[in-house]
Predict the structure.
Amino acid sequence: MFFLVLLPPIIFESGYNLHKGNFFQNIGSILVFAILGTAISALVVGGGVYLLGLAGLVYSLNFMQSFAFGSLISAVDPVATLAIFQALDVDPVLNMLVFGESILNDAVAIVLTTTIIESGGPEMEDVGVLSQMTGGVTRFFGVLFGSAAIGTVTAMTSSLVLKHIDLYTNPSLEFALMLCFIYTPYALAEGVHLSGIMAILFCGVVMSHYTHYNLSPVTQITMQQTMRTLAFVCETSIFIYLGLGIFSFPHRVELSLVVWSLVLILLGRALNIFPLSLLCNKFRSHQITKRMMVIMWFSGLRGAIAYALSLHLEFDEETRKVLVTTTLIVVLFTTIVLGGGTMPLMKYLESKGSSKNRRRRKKDITLSKTCEFGSAIDSELLAELTEEELEQSFAEGRTHLQGFMYWDYKFFRPFFVRKFSQQELKDGKSHVTKLTDKWFQDIQSSPLISDLSDLDIDLNIDEDCLIK
C-alpha cells in the first residue's frame, strides 16, 4: 500500500514541480549531500548503534538490523525548516541545497535500506561481513544508477512522443498519456528488481524539464495541480497514520537506544554536512558559508518516510517494536524540537552574521514543499543563473554557459522540445482565456453576488479594454 500507492505521487511531484534552473546549477553539491551524505549518516548511526549494542549500552541489534535502522533514519524531511526559509526569504542557494537534498535523500535512503535488508537475507548467512559490505555497496550503486537510467529514458521517450504526436487539442487524452508514462518507470524498475522510487523521481525531474513544454497549457496546469494535490493527500495520510500509531500500536521504549540514536543522528549529520560542504566549496563559485552549514546541519528533521520504512522491517516482533517506537520518537523529537528551534537559530545567526543588513520580505508560511520553495528569488548573493536568465542569455547570444547547461540549451532542448508556431501559441492562450472568462461569468451569475463589487468593476474595466 505504502510503496505502491502513497509514496510514488509524493516522489514524482517533488521532481516534477521542482524549479529546475536553481536545481541543475547546484546539482553537483546536491548529489554529494544526497548520496555521500546519506551514506555517511547511515554508517555513523548504524555503526554506532551496533557497537553500543555490543558494549551493552543500548538494546542489542545485529549487524544487518543496526545498519537497516541507520539507513531508514537517514531519510530527512525538513518541511518545517523550508517553510521558515520561505518566510524569511533566505539565500536561494541555501534554500535549494536543503530542498534538493531532501528530494533525492528520500529515494537514496529507501534504496539503501532495501539493499541492506537484501544483503542480510538467508542466502547471505555464510558470507563474511566484508563480502556483505562490498556486495551491498555494489548493489546500491547498481540500483541507484540503473533506476535513474530507467526513469530518464522513460521521460525522454515521453517527450519525443508528445513532440511528434499532436495531442494539443485533446487535453484529456494528453493527460491520460502522461499518467501512463508516470507509472511506467516505476513498474519497469520494480520488475527488474531495481528501485521504482528512484526511477519515478528521475522521471519527474526530466519530464518537467522537457516533456512539460510539449503539453498544452490546460494539461500543464492540470498536471501540476493534480500531482501537487495527490502528493499532499498521500503525505497527509502517512502523517495521520503516524499520529494514530502513537495510540494504536504496541510500543516498546528503549530509552538508552532513543537517546543514543538522537546523539548519533546529530553527529552523523555534522560529519555529513561540514566536511562535504568544504569539499563542495573547492568546486563552487558560490561558497557555502559556515552559517549556511550550521543551518543545513540543524535542518536534518526526520519525517514520514523514515517512519513508513520502519513499519516495513521484517524482523522478529520484539526487535520490530523497538525500532518502530524509536523511529517514531525520533521523528516527533526532530520535528518539534529541531523544527521549532530553526527560527530562533536563524535569527541568532543573522544577528551575528554579515547578512543582518539584508532587507527581508515578509511572506506567509506555507507547508507545501514544492509550491514555492523551488522558485527563483532575487538575491545579491546568487551567483547561479535562473532558468529565465538562461533562456534570455541565449536569446542575447551570450555563450558563457558551461557544462550541462550549455549542452542542454544548445542541443538537448531543441531535440526533445517542440517548436510551437505563432498560431499554436495564440490558440493556447485563447483556450486559457476562454476558461477564465467562463469562470468570471459563473461568478457574475451567482445569486450570492447581489451588489456591484470590486470584481464587477474589474471585469467591466477589462471588457471595456477588450472592446477598445
About this structure: Residues 355-362, 364-370, 372-391 have pLDDT under 50 and may be disordered. The chain is about 75% helix and 0% strand. The CA atoms of residues 49 and 162 lie 50 Å apart. Residues 129-164 form the longest helix (36 residues).
